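Appendix B, Record 12. Input sequence as logged:
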Amino acid sequence: MSYLDHINRCNHYTLTARFPFLIDGVRYGFVTQEFAQLLNQFPDVFTWTQTELKLSPKLNTAQKRTNAVAEVLSILRTQGLFAAWNDELFGIKNNFDDPEVMSIQRAAVAYFGLRAYGVHVNGLVNTSQGQKLWVATRAKNKNTFPGMLDHIVAGGQPAGTGLLENVIKEADEEASIPVALSSQAKLKSTITYCGESTQGLKPDTLFCFDLQLPKEFIPQSNDGEVESFELISLEKVASIINTTEQFKPNCNLVIIDLLIRKGVIDNRDNELSQRLRQPLP
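Logged structural output:
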């Protein structure tokens, strides 16, 4: 797997057989016909026209939309539609700085093909051998990507939460990083990609933070989702990404961006940087 292979892997999708999902006349996502027909059994909330899925115009506030859709998803959950459910709401908006038009259970976001946002933190340490990166190994009992390499801190962006606020929360939960350190994280770049899963379309935006950590700090998992942490040189991390599939797929993109910024990867033609920022459907 080359750097470009990892980027392409996260940007593999088709809009064939997907239909627009509209809220107040604005397209926010894409759904399959099968999912749209499933929602059509709730006519007070959704309307399926065979060419697009619409949220009822009677739901004219963010809270009304959130409440109505939550009731529908709760019913579908009891019918076994969702394999995972974590009671976390994501805010729905086409651009991160826009107001949220509603909030929706995270497990349902891909089914609606909605844009989702997240934070990833590069935990960096200056050593006598050069700069190194803290790398986590995901617990083997994780539902997704068990045992794969990951960032020291990363997470989806919950509704109504600021980016740094989320970094601080995730840093405590995932690596026991105290607020005095995590609050020093700096937003360095943004990457976008769109893939698809068995649930649906995943047009994602990741906000990439760098966090300089002292040599004496040793991360410890606070939520049981990480098996171990290892401090690895940027050059070795680059080799792992360029020759293996050991990292969780979207982590590769964030770290490729880091390696470009640190001058570890030759990006003279700017191709990799451009490919890390794909237009989202």
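Residues 62-78 form the longest helix (17 residues).
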